[in-house]
Specification:
The chain is mostly helical and 201 residues long. The protein is built from 6 helices and 3 strands.
């Protein structure tokens, strides 16, 4: 809107001078060589230009609103599937040596599947880029964990600490913790951006 108005004010000064100069220099019809008529003519042109620009701006604004609503629905769907609170409490802030709640890991896997669906792609390129970055870190975390943790009878995934390779299991656990920290950093950046842009309350 500000850009449009700035063009409005500029045209009030420039157009009358330009039209008068052109009519004098190129001997255009005398109708346009009169200052009053040239001002009226320039104002008419300006009103038309302003009307067109306002229409374009309003259409763009409506499109942006629809895009934001669409993105908000997708973001809510993805974050509900991931369950941020459970992810933080049961995975990212825990030591993998003590194990992760199986339900929390299942939600990560469900989220990873849903985030790949075309219907869950975002229009906002920055949001999509941040989600992609988070997904990349989550993939590294889940891929490594899948080969170095196993299920237990208590609904937890734990490292192979009860096997004969206990020392290796400890190193693997440290690696898993590092990967979890990487996920946490990416998640923090994503959440801050989504809040700043009004996607989250």
């Amino acid at each position: 809107m500000a850009k449009t108005l700035s063009k409005w004010y500029v045209s009030l000064i420039v157009l009358p001078i330009l039209i008068t100069y052109l009519t004098n220099h190129f001997s255009l019809p005398l109708l346009l060589s009169d200052w009053k008529l040239s001002i009226i003519f320039s104002l008419a042109i300006t009103v038309v230009i302003l009307g067109i620009e306002l229409k374009i701006e309003m259409d763009r604004s409506k499109t942006n609103d629809l895009s934001k609503k669409s993105d908000m629905a997708v973001i809510k769907r993805l974050l509900d599937t991931l369950d941020i609170k459970m992810l933080q409490e049961e995975v990212l802030q825990k030591d993998s040596w003590n194990g992760y709640l199986h339900e929390a890991i299942s939600k990560i896997i469900d989220y990873q599947y849903k985030s790949r669906l075309l219907e869950n792609k975002l229009i906002d390129k920055t949001s999509q880029k941040l989600f992609d970055s988070l997904n990349h870190k989550l993939m590294s975390f889940t891929d490594f964990s899948a080969f170095h943790m196993c299920g237990s009878n208590h609904g937890y995934l734990i490292p192979f600490k009860d096997s004969e390779f206990r020392e290796k299991a400890m190193k693997d656990s440290q690696k898993i913790d590092e990967l979890a920290k990487d996920v946490y950093k990416e998640l923090e950046v994503l959440i801050k951006y989504l809040k700043r842009k009004g996607y989250l309350n």
